[in-house]
Amino acid sequence: MRKKEPLPRLFFRELTESCQVGQGSRIIIAVSGGPDSMALLHLLADARKRLDLELTAVWLDHSLRPEETPIEEQTVRAAAEKLQINCVRHRVDAASHSDEQGISLEHAARDLRYAALRTTAREVEAEYIAVAHTADDQAEEILLRLLRGSGREGVSGMRMRSRDLIRPLLNIDKKDLLAWLTGQGIASCFDSSNDDMRFLRNRVRHQLLPFLEEHFEQGVKKSLRKTADSLAVDEELLAALTAEAEQETISELSSLKMQLLRAPFCALHPALQRRVVERLLWKIGGRAGYDHILLVIKAAESGRTNSELHLGRGLRVGVFRDCLEFSYPAGKKAWRGRLF
Predict the structure, then answer these.
(1) In whole angstroms, what is the distance from residue 217 CA to residue 200 CA?
(2) Where are the alpha helices (DSSP H) in the chain?
(3) Residue 250: C-alpha distances to residues 85, 224, 240, 285, 296 (Å)
(4) Nearest Cα to Cα of residue 298 among 319, 326, 329
(5) 28-49: string of b/e by CB count within 10 Å (b at 16+)?
(6) CB–CB of 44/166 below 8 Å?
(7) How many CB atoms lie within 10 A of CB 73?
(8) Which of 54-68, 168-182, 323-337 has the weakest average pLDDT?
(9) d(CA 146, CA 133)
């Protein structure tokens, strides 16, 4: 039986080849205190010797688990101090943000977390933000996106590198990380919210995946990752075609006003139409839901001049003879008025 490659060596290869991190890079490390992020912290500290990396650890208090967060912060700070890595603390109120924005608690926590990470990245002029998603997380994410009706791009999963985000653990199984942590005597914390079945991700992790493994396919996680890898290759081509289509069909008038040119848009293949509308809605800050995308496509193809769409959060789409115009007439807030 072939001997497994030592984890630090595998990690270093993923970091330099898949994530394309080079000599002297500045990296922000998202560290919660859980096993995955503690492994990421220590593995990056090990890689620092060979790459002359500048590392900053970021720990975030979401104001959700006051009984657990003190020990988590203490664990992260102690490890960072031992490794001689600067540690930055942020505190946010995920529950309030969830209520204010009308989004799930998971969504709110994620938004605030990445905002805090990018704030620190700007402050220290870091090129990369390293997060501790593992191969197990990738399989869970693909199932989650399937359940939510994601298209090809979503089901192709997370990337090792996505602009400023790097995921050097994405091809590494969690069990291998846990074994390495135990062998190294590295302490980590347990987040009780990971067992909270109110969250869909936890139901996928603790109920759906084990059920699929027991009753359908023992290697379902690996199969899901293979499917994502295949789709990711196709996605690169589609992304390039979408970028070309955007240039031909979208006109950005301001941060709160964009136009979609009807004639060139209607000439696109339906697959590209969906992607172009999705990108436009993301750019202008709207909800790029499946139903919204279909409404916009229908309006572009057959909408009457001077009709309009109401897409939520104050976003209006005015239908003109040559274009659809996306705008926030009263700002990004709920509004009952009409354009025409």
Answers:
(1) 21
(2) 7-13, 35-51, 69-83, 94-101, 105-124, 135-147, 152-155, 174-184, 200-203, 209-215, 220-249, 262-266, 270-284, 290-302
(3) 45, 35, 15, 15, 13
(4) 319
(5) bbbbbbbbbbbbbbbbbbebbe
(6) no
(7) 19
(8) 323-337
(9) 18
Task: List residues bridging with 261 in a β-sheet.
Answer: 323
Q: Alpha-carbon distance 44 to 37, whole Å?
A: 10
- Return the ∠ at Cα 59 (arms to 54 and 60), rounded to 5°: 140
Neighbours of 240 (CB within 10 A): 10
Instruction: Quote the CA–CA distance of 336 and 272 in Å, as a whole number.
Output: 32
Calpha distance 305→6 (Å, rounded): 64
Tokens linked to 280: 């436009």
What CATH fold (topology level) applies to the domain 255-327? 3.30.465
Q: Is the separation of the CB atoms in 178 and 243 below 8 Å?
A: no
Q: Which sequence spans correspond to the domains of the chain?
A: 7-215, 255-327
Q: How confident is the model at residue 129 (pLDDT cuts 50, 70, 90)?
A: very high
DSSP 5: P
Q: Encoding tokens for residue 316? A: 């209006």
The answer to whether the 7-215 and 255-327 domains have the same CATH topology is no
Q: Is residue 335 scored above 90 in pLDDT?
A: no
Give residue-wise pLDDT tens across range 195-230.
889 888 999 999 999 999 999 988 999 999 898 888
Q: Has domain 7-215 been given CATH number 3.40.50.620?
A: yes
Contact 47, 14 (CB under 8 A): no
- Angle at the Cα of 255 (from 249 to 260), degrees rounded to 5? 20
What confidence tens digit (pLDDT) does each residue in 66-114 have? 999 999 999 999 999 999 999 999 999 999 999 988 888 888 899 999 9
How far apart, in whole angstroms, are the C-alpha atoms of residue 154 and residue 144?
10
Q: Please, what is the Cα angle at 187 between 182 and 193, to 5 degrees?
A: 105
